Amino acid sequence: MYCPFCRLPDSRVIDSRSTDDGTSIRRRRQCAHCQRRFTTLETYSLLVVKRSGVTEPFSRTKIVSSVRKACQGRPITEDMLDRLGQQVEENLRAAGSAQLSTHDVGLAVLEPLSELDPVAYMRFASVYRAFESLTDFENAIAELRAKCGQAVD
Ligand SMILES: [Zn+2]
């Protein structure tokens, strides 16, 4: 990998340790040319198995763009979406499985999204959980109210 300072490709590892949660390894590297130091993070790739059986790499960008659609017209900033994407990925990694279904990913989105915005949550849940009737919406609203312990406008 290229040195981020001088762009030359030679560096050596001078220190290597697990992160606190144990899901990745942080390596301290020193460039052989300019001698400057930088850190790399090594972690396993998350794979998502789609309903069709096709496997693809987990993409935080994809999660964020599907949540962004559900957030249209809501007071949600790009920063909030980024944080949600990060939280979803962290939760999935913390669960410790390298291979996930689209169902696992959807579930991991619902939890933080319910805290972010109830309307966006309902939109996302209605697609993800394939709501077919008003009763499905009523049940989901009841769950959300119970979870928040407060009225949802
Ligand atoms: Zn360098």
UniProtKB/TrEMBL annotation:
GO terms for biological process: negative regulation of DNA-templated transcription. A zinc finger (unnamed) spans 3-34. The keyword Nucleotide-binding applies. The gene is nrdR. NCBIfam families: transcriptional regulator NrdR. Pfam families: ATP-cone, Zn_ribbon_NrdR. Negatively regulates transcription of bacterial ribonucleotide reductase nrd genes and operons by binding to NrdR-boxes. Belongs to the NrdR family. Residues 46-136 form the ATP-cone domain. HAMAP family: NrdR. It comes from the Bacteria. Its cofactor is Zn(2+). This is Transcriptional repressor NrdR. InterPro entries: ATP-cone_dom, NrdR-like_N, RNR_NrdR-like. Binds 1 zinc ion. The keyword ATP-binding applies. Keywords: ATP-binding, DNA-binding, Metal-binding, Nucleotide-binding, Repressor, Transcription, Transcription regulation, Zinc, Zinc-finger. GO terms for molecular function: ATP binding; DNA binding; zinc ion binding.
